[in-house]
Amino acid sequence: MPKSKFPTLTQLGHTVPVPASPEDAVLERVANPHPGTTYLVRFTAPEFTTLCAVTAQPDFAHLVIDYVPRRWLIESKSLKLYLGSFRNERGFHEDCTLKIGKTLAARLAPRWLRIGGYWYPRGGMPIDVFYQTGAPPRGLWLPDQGVPSYRGRG
Length: 154
Fold this sequence. Notes:
Distance between the termini: 36 Å
Number of helices: 2
């Protein structure tokens, strides 16, 4: 689609640095062309990184974000930049996963949203974190998130 149809987008089609923090990130959205249709949108970020809240050592996760849009769709480049902004952010796995889920839910006001944070082990123990905004809509085809229980996840 021609860029002129989306004049409010400030990142797509431009060179944009990764924001210094999630608070500095701009999550852009576009109008949903099918607002009356129940369908699932999935984003998978298999190389998400952040820093341990205590030691500042790197933590890695495989994130799966599913949502059923109403009026808005998230613009994918802005989501990539937002997720990349966690690279220098300290936080516990639970906090990072819920922060992402709640931020997206607030920005999009979807019919339904869930996030699965499948964290790679540190100290010998993986931590998986799940959040959703409620029950999925009736009639929604909801595939498995496709990430196996930890057995060397790769």
